[in-house]
Design brief:
The complex is a heterodimer of chains A (about 350) and B (about 350). Chain A is mainly α. Chain A has a single domain, classed as ABC transporter involved in vitamin B12 uptake, BtuC. In chain A, about 70% of the residues lie in helices and about 0% in strands. Chain A has 16 helices and 2 strands. Chain A has helices at about 1-10, 35-45, 50-65, 70, 75-100, 105-125, 130-150, 155-175, 185-190, 210-225, 230-240, 240-245, 250-275, 290-300, 310-330, 335-355, and strands at about 200, 205-210. Chain A has a two-stranded antiparallel sheet with strand order 1-2. Chain A starts with a helix and ends with a helix. With about 350 residues, chain B is an alpha/beta fold. Chain B folds into 2 domains: about 1-135 and about 285-305, Rossmann fold (3-Layer(aba) Sandwich), CATH 3.40.50.2300; about 135-280 and about 315-340, Rossmann fold (3-Layer(aba) Sandwich). Helices cover about 40% and strands about 20% of the residues of chain B. A 7-stranded mixed β-sheet of chain B has the order 1-3-2-4-5-6-12, sandwiched between helices. A 6-stranded mixed β-sheet of chain B has the order 8-7-9-10-11-13, sandwiched between helices. In chain B, helix 2 packs parallel to helix 10 and helix 5 (about 135-150) runs parallel beside helix 6. The two termini of chain B are about 15 Å apart. Classes of the chains: A mainly alpha (about 350), B alpha/beta (about 350). Chains A and B meet through helix 5, helix 8, helix 13, helix 15 and helix 16 of A and helix 1, helix 7, helix 8 and helix 9 of B.
Chain lengths: ~350, ~350
C-alpha cells in the first residue's frame, strides 16, 4: 500500500536526481555461467557426486567390455567382498582425514589387532568373545596413542602415524613370530573369529557378513558425522581448527576421540579380516594403509580437511574394486591395473583441487 | 624365545642393528650370519643351523639381522663390523641383492669367504658361493606330481598360477616355470612368465605370498574360468588363501593345490588335505653347511664347489605329500614334519 502511495505522489525536486541512479538492490555480481562453471558449482555442493558418476560410468564401460561375467550378481557381490576390508579401513581413514590429518597406521593397527585376537584365543586359550573385545580395546588405545601424540606433543599426523605404523608392524611380527594361525586351527578352537567370512546367498549373489558389516559401519559413521554435534565438530576442526577452538569446541579432546574411533573401526576391521582371509595372517594387508588413503581420495574427501561425505570412500573403494575386476576380466595384466589406479588417484585429487577453486 | 626377541628388537631399535656377538677368542675361527630379519621362521631356522654347526665345529658365530625385509643399510653395517672383527667368513641372505655387491667385494678383498644363503646375489658370482634351494627343481617336482595324479586328464587340465609380485623376482619365475616344465607345458623362454600359449593355462595372478593375496587371486582366476582343477602357488600361505576361496565357491574338493616351502603350517595343511603336495626346502642345512665351508676355508683355503650343472650349491629339496605318485620321489608327512621350519 505505502509503496503505491509513495510512487504515485509527485516527487520533490531534490528527489528527482535519483531517477538517474541505479535502482537495483545491492547484490553479488553474477558472471554469466558457462557449463563448466555450473558443473563446478554443482560438484562443490555435492562432493560425493564425482565418485558416484565415475562408479556408474566404469560399471557401464566394464559391463559392456567384459559382458555377463562382469555383470553377474555373483561377480558384483564378489567385488563388494573383495573391497570390504579396505572399505572398513577407508572409513577409519576418512575420520582422520576429515580433521585435515592422515593416518598411515590404520592397516598396521588392524593386522596387529587380528594377531592379538588370534594369539589370545588360540595360544592362550582366552574365550573368543573376550579375545575379540580385547582386540577392540587395543584398537582404541592404538588410535588414541596417535591422537595423543598429534594433539599433546603437537607432532604432525603424518610423522606420528609413520612412526606408529612401524611400531605396530614390529609388534605384530613379534607377537605372531611372523607365523600365520591356520584356518583349520581357528575352526577347531575359535570359529567365532571367522564369523564375518560367513555368507548368505541371495539369487546368484553371495553376500558375506563382512560386506554387510562394511555397509553398517559407513551408515553409523554417516549418522554420527551428520546428525550429532560431535560430528559437526569434526568437520569444523578439519575446516579451521583455530576457528573451531574459538567457537568453544574442545578441539584436542575431539581429535583424540577421532583417532580413538578410527582405531576402534580398525579393531572391528581386524575381526572382519580374519573372516575374509580365513586365517590370522600377520603378513597380509601390508599395503592396506595406502590403499585406504587411495579409496578416501578417489571418494572425494579433501585431504585438506573439513570437506567431503563419509559415503565417498565407500564409493571410492568400490571404484577400485570395479576397476580391478573389470580390467582383469577384460584380460589386462596386473601391472596395468596398478597403473590405472595410480592415475585414478591423481585425477581424483586434481578434480578436488579444481572444485575447491570454485568462485562466485 | 619371545623374551630374547624383544631384547633383540629393542636392541635393533636402539642401535639400528641386532647384534649377538660371542666373545671371540683369538685362536677361534670367527663367522658371521647376516639374515634379512631375525623373526621370519625361515631365518630363525637358518640361525639354528648356524648355531648348531658352530658348536659342532668350534666356530665362533656372530649373528646380525636387518630390522625388516629390505633393510639394506643394516646389512651393510653388519658386513663392515664383521670385517673389522677379523672373522673368516660371512653367510648372507641379502635384502638388496644388487646394492650389497660392493661391500661384499670389500669383505672378499679382506680375505673373507662370503656365501650367499637362499638368495643369490646379482650377479651370482659376486659371492664366493651360493647355498640355496634349487627353486626350478622345487617347481618341477610339484608339476610332475600334479601331472601324475591327474593321469590322462592332465591333457585337459585347467591350471591357475598364483605368483608372487608384479615385479616377478627370480624365485617367482623359477618356481612358476619349473612347475610348468614338470607338468609338461612348453615354457618357451624360461626367464619369462606369461609367454606360454598352452590352452591349459587359465591365467596368472599375484598373491604377495600371503593368505589374503592368495584368496583374492584365486577368486579372480575362478571368475575367469570356474573349471580350474589345478592350482600352482608360490608358497604355502598363498595356497591356504586359495583354498579359502575355493571353499567359498564350494569347489574345495577335486582341485589339486600344490606349493613350495615346507614350513610347518604348510605340512600340516597337507595333512588336512588343503594342499596336495609341497616342495620342502631346508634353511637349516644351508646355514649348517655354510659354517662347515667357512671352517674348511679357514683351515685349508678351499672354496666350496657348485653342484653339478648348476651355478650354485643345491642344499636339496624334497616333495612332501601324503599321496605319493609313481615315478615322483617324495617323503611322507611325518618325515616332512620332522624337517619342517617355523
Amino acid at each position: 500500500m505505502s509503496e503505491t502511495a509513495r510512487t504515485s505522489r509527485t516527487k520533490q525536486e531534490y528527489e528527482q536526481t535519483l531517477d538517474a541512479s541505479d535502482k537495483a538492490v545491492a547484490q553479488f555480481e553474477h558472471k554469466s555461467r558457462n557449463f563448466l562453471d555450473a558443473t563446478q558449482h554443482f560438484l562443490h555442493g555435492n562432493p560425493t557426486m564425482v565418485p558416484v558418476i565415475v562408479l556408474v560410468i566404469s560399471i557401464i564401460i566394464f559391463g559392456a567390455l567384459a559382458g555377463p561375467k562382469f555383470f553377474s550378481p555373483f561377480n558384483l557381490s564378489l567385488i563388494v567382498q573383495q573391497v570390504s576390508i579396505i572399505g572398513i579401513l577407508a572409513a577409519a581413514q576418512s575420520l582422520v582425514i576429515l580433521t585435515a590429518g592422515i593416518d598411515l597406521s590404520v592397516g598396521a593397527i588392524m593386522v596387529l589387532m587380528s594377531v592379538v585376537m588370534g594369539q589370545l584365543a588360540i595360544t592362550l586359550g582366552v574365550p573368543a568373545p573376550l579375545a575379540i573385545l580385547i582386540g577392540f580395546v587395543g584398537g582404541i588405545l592404538a588410535g588414541m596413542l596417535n591422537g595423543f601424540l598429534v594433539t599433546r606433543i603437537k607432532l604432525p599426523p603424518f610423522i606420528v602415524t609413520l612412526g606408529t605404523w612401524n611400531i605396530f608392524f614390529a609388534l605384530n611380527l613379534w607377537l605372531s613370530g611372523a607365523q600365520s594361525i591356520r584356518s583349520q586351527t581357528l575352526d577347531e578352537i575359535a570359529p567365532l573369529l571367522k564369523f564375518f567370512g560367513e555368507s548368505i546367498a541371495i539369487g546368484g549373489a553371495r553376500i558375506t557378513y563382512g560386506s554387510v558389516l562394511m555397509l553398517v559401519i559407513f551408515a553409523v559413521l554417516w549418522y554420527i558425522l551428520n546428525h550429532t554435534s560431535w560430528g559437526r565438530h569434526v568437520y569444523a576442526i578439519g575446516d579451521d581448527k583455530e576457528a573451531a577452538e574459538l567457537s568453544g569446541i574442545r578441539t584436542n579432546r575431539t581429535l583424540i576421540m577421532v583417532y580413538g574411533l578410527a582405531g576402534l573401526v580398525c579393531g572391528i576391521g581386524a575381526w572382519a579380516s580374519i573372516g575374509r582371509v580365513g586365517s590370522v595372517s600377520p603378513q597380509s594387508f601390508q599395503e592396506a594403509n595406502l590403499q585406504s588413503i587411495t579409496a578416501v581420495v578417489i571418494g572425494g574427501i579433501s585431504l585438506f580437511g573439513g570437506r567431503g561425505s563419509i559415503i565417498g570412500p565407500l564409493i571410492g573403494a568400490l571404484i577400485v574394486g570395479v576397476f580391478n575386476s573389470g580390467l582383469r576380466l577384460v584380460g589386462v595384466d596386473v601391472l596395468w591395473q596398478v597403473f590405472a589406479i595410480g592415475w585414478l588417484t591423481i585425477i581424483a585429487v586434481a578434480i578436488d583441487q579444481w572444485i575447491r577453486k570454485v568462485s562466485s | 624365545m619371545k623374551k630374547t626377541l624383544v631384547g633383540a628388537t629393542l636392541g635393533a631399535l636402539a642401535l639400528g642393528l641386532a647384534v649377538a656377538p660371542n666373545g671371540a677368542k683369538a685362536d677361534e675361527i670367527g663367522a658371521c650370519l647376516i639374515t634379512k630379519t631375525d623373526i621370519n621362521p625361515f631365518f630363525v631356522k637358518m640361525k639354528e643351523g648356524a648355531q648348531a654347526a658352530s658348536v659342532a665345529n668350534g666356530v665362533s658365530l656372530s649373528t646380525f639381522a636387518g630390522k625388516i625385509d629390505g633393510d639394506h643399510e643394516t646389512q651393510v653395517q653388519a658386513i663392515e663390523s664383521c670385517i673389522a672383527s677379523g672373522a673368516k667368513g660371512i653367510l648372507l641372505t641379502a635384502s638388496d641383492t644388487k646394492a650389497i655387491v660392493p661391500v661384499v667385494k670389500k669383505a672378499r678383498d679382506a680375505g673373507l669367504l662370503v656365501i650367499a644363503l637362499d638368495t643369490p646375489l646379482e650377479p651370482i658370482d659376486s659371492a664366493d658361493a651360493t647355498f640355496a634351494t634349487d627353486n626350478f627343481k622345487a617347481g618341477e617336482l610339484i608339476g610332475q606330481w600334479a601331472a601324475a595324479k591327474l593321469g590322462d586328464e592332465a591333457s585337459e587340465a585347467k591350471i591357475a598360477f598364483l605368483d608372487l609380485t608384479p615385479s616377478a623376482p627370480s624365485v617367482d619365475v623359477l618356481r612358476d616355470q619349473g612347475f610348468m616344465k614338470g607338468f609338461g607345458i612348453d615354457i618357451k623362454d624360461p626367464n619369462k612368465i606369461g609367454d606360454e600359449d598352452d590352452p591349459r593355462i587359465v591365467g596368472h595372478d599375484i598373491t604377495n605370498g600371503n593368505e589374503e593375496g592368495g584368496r583374492k587371486a584365486m577368486e579372480n582366476l575362478l571368475q575367469q574360468d570356474s573349471e580350474i582343477n589345478v592350482v600352482y602357488t608360490i608358497n604355502e600361505p598363498a595356497a591356504a588363501g586359495a583354498y579359502e576361496a575355493l571353499k567359498s565357491f564350494g569347489m574345495e574338493d577335486g582341485v589339486l593345490i600344490v606349493s613350495v616351502d615346507g614350513g610347518c603350517p604348510g605340512v600340516l595343511n597337507i595333512k588336512d588335505g588343503v594342499i596336495g603336495a609341497t616342495s620342502q626346502q631346508y634353511p637349516l642345512d644351508m646355514a649348517y653347511k655354510g659354517i662347515e665351508a667357512i671352517k674348511a676355508w679357514a683351515e685349508s683355503g678351499e672354496k666350496p664347489a657348485n653342484s653339478e650343472g648348476l651355478n650354485f650349491y643345491d642344499t636339496g629339496v624334497n616333495l612332501v605329500t601324503g599321496d605319493p605318485a609313481e615315478g615322483v620321489p617324495s617323503i611322507d608327512i611325518d618325515e616332512g614334519m620332522k624337517r619342517c621350519w617355523g
